[in-house]
Amino acid sequence: MEKSYLPYKSELTSRIALYPICKKPFEKGFKLLDEGKIKEGLEEIHYASELLLKIVLNNNKSLEQQTDKDIEKILEHNGWGTTVKTLFPMLKDILLKTFEDEGEKNFKINLFKVEINNFIDSLLSKKQIMVIQ
C-alpha cells in the first residue's frame, strides 16, 4: 500500500536553506513563537512566507494578493493532492489575523509550526511515496 506523507516536525525544515533570504525570518519567527511572542512570531513568519512565495511563484505579490489558484499550480506540479492544497488558505488566514490576548492563549504553536513546515516542504519538493508492507 502506498501512502503519501510529509514529515511531521516542529523544527524549521532544512529545505528552506536553499532560500537564505527566507531562512532567517522563519528562524526568528519560530524562536519568537517558542518564547510565547505569538504576534511577533507570526509577523516574521508572514514576512518569510511572502518572500518565499514571491521567489517560488516568480511574482511580486504580497501574501494577501497571492491566490489559492497560484499556489495550487505549484503544488500540483510537485505532485501534491487535495489535503496539501488546503494548507495555504488555512495558513494565510492565520498569518493575516491580528492576535489579541485571548487568541494568543488558544494558539497552538507546535501544530502551526508543523503545518508551516509541511507547506514549505510541499512548495519546495516533489511528493514522496512511502511503501507500507
TrEMBL record:
Protein name: Uncharacterized protein
